[in-house]
Specification:
This protein is mostly beta strands and about 120 residues long. It is built from no helices and eleven strands. The strands form two sheets. Strands 2, 4, 5, 6, 9, 10 and 11 form a seven-stranded mixed sheet that branches. It has a four-stranded antiparallel sheet with strand order 1-3-8-7, with no helix packed on it. The chain starts with a strand and ends with a strand.
Length: about 120
């Protein structure tokens, strides 16, 4: 069973930065596409960013130019660097693994981490 363990997050002021990490167990991390999602109170979970096994990344329009997703296959870890944070970025953030790069089906999920941006 693949496990995703998240770290990072916390409270930051508007305009600040945070980095989230997601460490993945298992031997096939390098073949997974990895994604970040978030869910704000009272809202549905939404896509934030994705990086496939080749390192090609895509972003939601709301975070493009501010967030960067990256991966370190040697450490089985995916990161989300968040800059120029806004109050509307406040949410619980989740990482997820897409085993066969479907683009829509994520097989494993992290435990979630709170990001709070104060105004």
């Amino acid at each position: 069973q693949v496990q995703l363990v998240q770290s990072g997050g916390g409270l930051v002021q508007t305009g600040g930065s945070l980095r989230l990490s997601c460490a993945t167990s298992g031997r096939t991390f390098s073949s997974y596409a990895m994604g970040w999602f978030r869910q704000a109170p009272g809202k549905e979970r939404e896509f934030v960013a994705r990086i496939n096994w080749r390192g090609i990344s895509t972003y939601a329009d709301s975070v493009k130019g501010r967030f960067t997703i990256s991966r370190d296959n040697a450490k089985n870890t995916v990161y989300l660097q968040m800059n120029s944070l806004k109050p509307e970025d406040t949410a619980v953030y989740y990482c997820a693994a897409d085993k066969i790069d479907t683009g829509v089906v994520y097989d494993y999920w992290g435990q979630g981490t709170q990001v709070t941006v104060s105004s």
